[in-house]
Amino acid sequence: MENDFVLLNICSTPEWKHIFSSILSHCDQFEVVFPDGEFDTENPLMGGKFEFEKLEGTFVKPWDGMENSISILGELTSLSRRIFYKLEEPSFEGLKPEVWCFKLFKNRTLFLSVEDFSVCLLEKNQEVISLLVDKGISIEIFN
Questions:
Q1: In 17, 73, 106, 125, which residue has its Cα 20 to 30 A from 81's Cα atom?
Q2: How far apart are CA 93 and CA 14, in angstroms?
Q3: How far apart are CA 26 and CA 65, in angstroms?
Q4: E strands along 8-116, which residues?
Q5: Which helix (H) or strand (E) holds 121?
Q6: Are the C-beta atoms of residues 96 and 117 closer than 8 Å to each other?
Q7: pLDDT, one tens digit for every residue, the chain (143 residues)
Q8: Rounded to whole angstroms, what are the CA distances from 85 to 1, 6, 33, 62?
């Protein structure tokens, strides 16, 4: 975590909406994780699976972070960005978002990852820092 900026609870971070929107619009690829198998509305880890499975041009592979799980990888298009935004929107109001585990990349470089619904790790590199500063987001909130 030394190489990351950490937000332990995005739902209680007022800057989260601005951070997420900025990174989402800047990045060009995503990876989102789900349990393998049929969509189950009762399983909170399935939030967004139905939407992401319907996207064209995605790639599905086993995910080694949890037994019987997959990751869906794809390009961030206007449609996939809208899906991410809609599923993350509850967190802007202090509620739990619908996606529990995802990553956003720019040119195959990891920028942001969210784990356990509300723990955000932002890569501590110059491009991320410059993006945040350019968008008026103080990196002091991460200290």
A1: 125
A2: 9
A3: 26
A4: 29-35, 59-62, 69-75, 102-106, 109-115
A5: strand 119-123
A6: yes
A7: 578 999 999 999 999 999 999 999 999 999 999 999 877 778 888 999 989 999 999 999 999 988 899 999 999 999 999 999 999 999 999 999 999 999 999 999 999 999 999 999 999 999 999 999 999 998 888 86
A8: 25, 20, 16, 25
Instruction: Kindly give the residue spans of alpha helices, DSSP state H, lying in the chain.
Output: 16-26, 49-53, 78-92, 126-134
Say if CB 139 and CB 124 are below 8 A apart: no
143 burial type by CB count under 10 A (0-12 exposed, 13-18 middle, 19+ buried)? exposed
123 phi/psi in degrees, rounded to 5: -60, 135
What is the distance between the alpha carbons of residues 49 and 7, in angstroms, rounded to a whole number? 24
Task: Give the other-Cβ count within 10 Å of 56's Cβ.
Answer: 9
Count of positions (residues) in the chain = 143
Tokens describing residue 108: 């195959």
* Global pTM value: 0.93
**Amino acid residing at 124:** K
